[in-house]
From TrEMBL:
Pfam families: Trp_repressor. SUPFAM superfamilies: TrpR-like (SSF48295). Signal peptide: none annotated. Gene3D superfamilies: TrpR-like. One of its GO terms (molecular function) is sequence-specific DNA binding. This is YerC/YecD family TrpR-related protein.
Length: 99
Protein backbone atom coordinates (compact mmCIF):
# COMPACT_ATOMS: atom_id res chain seq x y z
CA UNK A 1 0.00 0.00 0.00
CA UNK A 2 1.39 3.41 -0.87
CA UNK A 3 1.31 6.34 1.51
CA UNK A 4 -1.39 8.29 -0.31
CA UNK A 5 -3.74 5.29 -0.26
CA UNK A 6 -2.99 4.69 3.41
CA UNK A 7 -3.74 8.31 4.31
CA UNK A 8 -7.12 8.08 2.58
CA UNK A 9 -8.31 5.16 4.73
CA UNK A 10 -11.09 6.12 7.11
CA UNK A 11 -9.48 4.39 10.09
CA UNK A 12 -6.21 6.23 9.45
CA UNK A 13 -8.06 9.55 9.12
CA UNK A 14 -9.76 8.85 12.47
CA UNK A 15 -6.42 8.10 14.11
CA UNK A 16 -4.87 11.31 12.80
CA UNK A 17 -7.93 13.28 13.90
CA UNK A 18 -7.77 11.72 17.37
CA UNK A 19 -4.46 13.50 18.01
CA UNK A 20 -6.06 16.86 17.24
CA UNK A 21 -8.62 16.25 20.00
CA UNK A 22 -6.03 15.89 22.74
CA UNK A 23 -5.06 18.74 25.04
CA UNK A 24 -1.46 18.79 26.12
CA UNK A 25 1.35 16.35 26.68
CA UNK A 26 -0.35 14.33 29.42
CA UNK A 27 -3.36 13.44 27.25
CA UNK A 28 -1.10 12.57 24.30
CA UNK A 29 1.08 10.48 26.59
CA UNK A 30 -1.85 8.48 27.97
CA UNK A 31 -3.27 7.93 24.46
CA UNK A 32 0.10 6.68 23.23
CA UNK A 33 0.44 4.37 26.24
CA UNK A 34 -2.94 2.85 25.37
CA UNK A 35 -2.25 2.75 21.63
CA UNK A 36 1.31 1.39 21.52
CA UNK A 37 3.20 -1.44 23.11
CA UNK A 38 6.11 -0.32 25.31
CA UNK A 39 8.50 -1.49 22.57
CA UNK A 40 6.69 0.53 19.88
CA UNK A 41 6.68 3.60 22.14
CA UNK A 42 10.46 3.29 22.62
CA UNK A 43 11.00 2.62 18.90
CA UNK A 44 9.17 5.85 18.02
CA UNK A 45 11.18 7.79 20.58
CA UNK A 46 14.39 6.31 19.19
CA UNK A 47 13.47 7.35 15.65
CA UNK A 48 12.95 10.94 16.75
CA UNK A 49 16.32 10.83 18.52
CA UNK A 50 17.90 9.51 15.32
CA UNK A 51 16.29 12.35 13.32
CA UNK A 52 17.62 14.92 15.78
CA UNK A 53 21.15 13.49 15.56
CA UNK A 54 21.09 13.36 11.76
CA UNK A 55 19.77 16.90 11.61
CA UNK A 56 22.73 18.00 13.72
CA UNK A 57 25.07 16.54 11.11
CA UNK A 58 26.18 13.39 12.86
CA UNK A 59 27.29 10.50 10.65
CA UNK A 60 25.28 7.30 10.36
CA UNK A 61 27.87 5.45 12.45
CA UNK A 62 27.81 8.11 15.18
CA UNK A 63 24.01 8.00 15.24
CA UNK A 64 23.99 4.21 15.50
CA UNK A 65 26.47 4.30 18.37
CA UNK A 66 24.65 7.06 20.24
CA UNK A 67 21.07 5.79 19.80
CA UNK A 68 21.48 2.04 19.45
CA UNK A 69 19.43 2.17 16.25
CA UNK A 70 20.13 -0.26 13.44
CA UNK A 71 21.66 0.91 10.17
CA UNK A 72 18.28 0.24 8.53
CA UNK A 73 16.48 2.49 11.00
CA UNK A 74 19.04 5.28 10.59
CA UNK A 75 18.73 5.03 6.81
CA UNK A 76 14.93 5.08 6.87
CA UNK A 77 14.82 8.05 9.24
CA UNK A 78 17.33 9.91 7.08
CA UNK A 79 15.20 9.27 4.00
CA UNK A 80 12.09 10.55 5.81
CA UNK A 81 13.93 13.51 7.35
CA UNK A 82 14.89 14.66 3.87
CA UNK A 83 11.76 13.40 2.14
CA UNK A 84 8.67 15.00 0.72
CA UNK A 85 6.40 14.80 3.78
CA UNK A 86 8.64 16.60 6.26
CA UNK A 87 7.06 15.34 9.47
CA UNK A 88 10.34 14.91 11.33
CA UNK A 89 11.53 18.30 10.12
CA UNK A 90 8.34 20.02 11.34
CA UNK A 91 8.67 18.50 14.80
CA UNK A 92 12.38 19.34 15.07
CA UNK A 93 11.70 22.94 14.08
CA UNK A 94 8.85 23.25 16.57
CA UNK A 95 11.08 21.77 19.28
CA UNK A 96 13.75 24.30 18.38
CA UNK A 97 16.15 21.66 17.06
CA UNK A 98 15.62 21.89 13.30
CA UNK A 99 17.00 24.20 10.68
Amino acid sequence: MNIETMLEREDVRQLVHAFTLLDGEREIETFLVDLLTPREFCDFAQRLHVARCLDQGESYLEVQAQTGASSTTVSRVSKALNGEYGGYRQVLIKQGDGE
